Amino acid sequence: MSWRRALYLLPLVLFAALAVYLFQGVAPGRDPQLLPSAMIDKPAPDFALPELLGGGQLTLADMKGQVVLVNFFASWCVPCRAEHPVLMTLSHDLAVPLYGIAYKDKPEDSAKFLAELGNPFRRTGLDQNGRTGIDFGVYGVPETYAIDRDGRIRWRHVGPLDQAAIDHELMPLLHRLGVP
Amino acid sequence: MIIELGHFALILALLVAILQSVLPLYGAQRNLAGPMAAGRMAAIAQFVLIALAFATLVHAYVTSDFSVANVAENSHSDKPMLYKVTGVWGNHEGSMVLWVLILSLYGAALAWFADAMPPRLAARVLAVQGMIGVGFLLFILFTSNPFLRLDPAPADGNGLNPVLQDPGLAFHPPFLYLGYVGFSVAFAFAIAALIEGRLDAAWARWVRPWTLASWCTLTVGIAMGSWWAYYTLGWGGWWFWDPVENASLMPWLSGTALIHSAIVVERRGALKSWTVLLAILTFSLSLVGTFLVRSGVLTSVHAFALDPARGVFILLLLVIAIGGSLSLYAWRAPRLEAGGLFAPVSREGALLLNNLILASCAATVFIGTLYPLFLDAVGGPKLSVGFPFFDRTFAPLMVPLLIAVAIGPLLAWKRGDLLGALQRLWAGFAVAIAVALIGLYVTGGGPVLAVLGLALAAWVGMGAIIEWSERVALFRAPWQESWRRARTLPRAAYGMSLAHFGLAVTVAGISASAFAVERIELMHIGQSIPLAGYTLRFDSIGKHDGENYSADSAGFTLLRGDHVVATMAPERRFFPLQQQTISKTAIRTDILADVYLALGDPDGKGGWAVRAYWKPLTPFIWLGAIIMALGGAVSLSDRRWRVGVAVRRAPKAALPAGD
What we know:
Chain A is of the alpha/beta class. Chain A has 5 helices and 7 strands, in the order αβββαβαβαββα. The longest helix of chain A has 23 residues, at 3-25.
């Protein structure tokens, strides 16, 4: 086969490679909304992040002893904006504190984002290099984790939180964890 | 009963589509007139049947028949009539029916115009259209059936997402689909050419109007979507690099490349196999765009409900359609070659450069969109995607493209004179430099990239004007002569000038968004804030109820000095059914700039969060898109494409075209 002929095969070969990836995406058992089971029920990775407002440090230890929600967001992320009203409502309605982690975002942009849309978070940490995100296995922002009293990850939601996820997954979980 | 009729019509349409994909193919192979004619009748029958199925679904929505599961899930009796109708395609199943309806509309239109085409080419094109129809009708009937009943029927429905209850968005999907699906025609032509092993100027002449028409509607569709995002989402942005947006941008980019490369095939007989590949890729990207988000492989704000069975089915369809056509390409395309030769600096060379850059742009968007998937495979976050990624990759690609847009049309076919073209563009260069200097002066050395963008916009716009004046010999010939030339200049030439000018307008709008002024304030009634030379006064706040929402409505006065420029009334609308609040922005525009107001949350102590923006040239973004689409439409009205003309010319068209 001449190289010219091979050139005509190239699009097909590239597409075949792509198709393999795509099929991995819908492989049975892989739900893009779920954390790979490895992280579920494991202790949440430890972190100590500078705080967005106030200048303190936000650490995992601060969250121990209660059920908390941790939301990774960024001002450059559109779905985060779409999700924001839901977080605002959650912060009013839930007894569970909501912590924010600004992922790969400039502090001034995150601050502006929260000033503009309202701040649903009890405290917000800055993960500027994305290190904490990597430890959590963040796959894209927004992403939300529920961490129980013992500091274990119990639930993960990839993408913007919606009412269905809250009603069918989060609320039953919080109920099981004994949150009023 | 009526909805069952729709279901039945859709099943019949599937059977007809099977006939359509087999009979004409057989007829074309054996050169039998009967089966080839049957294909045309099947295409028209398919359209009638799918239109019937679609009509029954619309009927169920209009009459709020909640015994139909799809209606109960997505509609509500309190919804305004307009959104009852548009709600038909506001969900996955209904939008799929709209998709095949448009596909069959194109099929029927092809059958209608088939008299003027070589019969075997027409038959093969219709057969390929039929195959696409079979695939997607199977998909609807087996995994996304909107005709299923609920028993017992609920008293009322779930309602449509309030964000989608907007006139701009209501008509955005049909335009988008007209574009996406329209590329199936170019795809079918490409496959037919590969089967025949022959591709000539007449082929390009047949493909171009269909591609151009799809490109126009896609341009309008994308513009509508972005305009909608601008005025509803309430933070003044108009493009977010969201997977669904990218999905519409990719076929637009490769479709733009296709309408340009088809010119080279038509005029010079070169770039044949590349054009065929582009036709395949453009429709493939449309398919990927429509379906990837629905397969569950990617998540997006716009995503429809997911279903794993659906994902596998979609991927199988994609693999068969794209993999099959690329295999055919690998096998048959090598024999298409032998085109006209050309020097690198020539009209062909410029169009090829355009194609390379547009294809790279499409590839960039593709990689950026699918990154989470690749990330999964390589095992770790290596890329941060979203604005940071696209700003860094897309802008550098656009710069050489924009520079070339002005030069290309001034180059001759075969061998061009670059220096001569640049000399003729001196005025454009002067204006671009002037714009850059003024921009830097006014902004005090402000955002350099934005100033560069404005200068490039001026360059492209001037390029379009200069090219047109060259053609009519403006100021070089007596004005009567120029007038005569202006009248006899082909519509296609006007179309190109308009489209390129529209691009300049859009680029200007995009670049100028960097100069926007933003104020986010907590305001009390009676308070005023300055905004880019205006004064904005908060006058009042009131409540009112709509059909399915209640709203806080604010009254603002926009003043320049003591002179009242406008009153503005942004709202916050609360939809009790979905427990969702959306912002209804108020925009006051004078085309050169928008004043944009969004009402935020109250602080409970009489203060309201207010977001106010002054956005210079922002309306240009959509104005430019409209001009581009208009350019396409004007080009489409060129007499070369008219059916009668094409019939007369078809036999001769195999000769090297040189008109």
